[in-house]
Inverse folding.
């Protein structure tokens, strides 16, 4: 089973440090960062762990590459039970993006029984708590443009829950889609649809329909995973075809391309060796509405793979460099 294991944490795995010449190199990176940010319609989150690490390690030889390849690229900010006042957190982030004339990408990641006890376990403590939280989230986006990915893995992971809990989760997800439809009319919200090697397309379509995908723009695929854009697009199109044939409507989709440059292997979801950064965020491509970096490259999937000892959600410069170099 594949999981998106990305709770936001403040810890940063430092790893071995090196020295750089600073000066001219730093100036070039700064120019690249400005140019990259200006060229994209999506907001570059200045508050990532990767950005904090680069700022704290200006003489590390890895810092310029991480800054150019990752920090300067637009990605998603994840919100969950670590975010404090969710209304303030979401509104502040969306407002910051609007002030720059950019579209923010946000992830709602607080479903009850999140990750079924896995590396990213947690979430709202009750159904009532989740309803309150997601309602405030949607209201905080308000009448402003945004892209929102709703609860990575929550639909695909239904099998890990007892039958009654599956019904409860499906109802909570449907409530979430209703909230975004009613309270965030300019947001393009996407209910997460797993990845190309997890749930059969027809089954996923049935689950997405029950969870309210008709209320939102569509669904997301490959979040925090490694499968190629072509594989992910083919899967998404099969899901959409099933929605069309079974329920007489279609939906758009987005693909997480943050780490799929070399493709993936079924079953290897946790910091696998050989992964590489994928296509930088862009509008359209391979039939998708957008290609996005939903997972922040360099943040660990858990203390496994090529990131032993690095907790889920923790940035590691070593993991980041592996993705940059594709090894």
């Amino acid at each position: 089973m594949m999981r998106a294991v990305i709770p936001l944490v403040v810890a940063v795995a430092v790893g071995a440090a090196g020295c750089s010449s600073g000066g001219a190199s730093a100036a070039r990176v700064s120019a690249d960062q400005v140019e990259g940010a200006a060229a994209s319609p999506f907001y570059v989150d200045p508050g990532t762990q990767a950005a904090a690490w680069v700022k704290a390690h200006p003489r590390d030889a890895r810092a310029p590459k991480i800054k150019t390849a990752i920090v300067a690229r637009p990605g998603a900010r994840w919100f969950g039970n670590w975010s404090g006042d969710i209304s303030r957190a979401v509104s502040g982030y969306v407002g910051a993006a609007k002030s720059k004339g950019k579209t923010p990408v946000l992830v709602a990641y607080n479903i009850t029984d999140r990750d079924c006890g896995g590396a990213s376990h947690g979430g709202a403590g009750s159904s009532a708590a989740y309803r309150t939280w997601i309602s405030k989230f949607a209201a905080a986006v308000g009448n402003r443009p945004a892209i929102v990915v709703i609860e990575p893995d929550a639909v695909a992971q239904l099998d890990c829950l007892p039958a009654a809990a599956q019904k409860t989760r499906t109802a909570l997800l449907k409530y979430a889609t209703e909230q975004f439809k009613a309270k965030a009319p300019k947001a393009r919200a996407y209910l997460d649809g797993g990845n190309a090697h997890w749930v059969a397309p027809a089954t996923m379509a049935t689950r997405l329909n029950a969870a309210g995908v008709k209320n939102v723009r569509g669904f997301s695929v490959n979040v925090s995973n490694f499968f190629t854009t072509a594989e992910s697009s083919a899967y998404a199109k099969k899901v959409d075809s099933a929605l069309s044939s079974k329920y007489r409507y279609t939906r758009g989709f987005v693909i997480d391309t943050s780490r799929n440059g070399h493709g993936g292997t079924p079953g290897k979801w946790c910091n696998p060796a050989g992964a590489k950064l994928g296509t930088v965020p862009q509008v359209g491509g391979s039939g998708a509405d957008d290609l996005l970096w939903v997972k922040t490259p360099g943040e660990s999937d858990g203390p496994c793979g090529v990131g032993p000892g690095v907790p889920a959600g923790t940035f590691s410069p070593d993991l980041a460099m592996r993705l940059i170099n594709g090894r």
Notes: The beta strands are 76-79, 105-108, 146-150, 187-192, 218-221, 252-256, 282-283, 290-292. The chain has one domain: 23-325. The longest helix spans residues 163-183. Residues 1-34 have pLDDT under 50 and may be disordered.
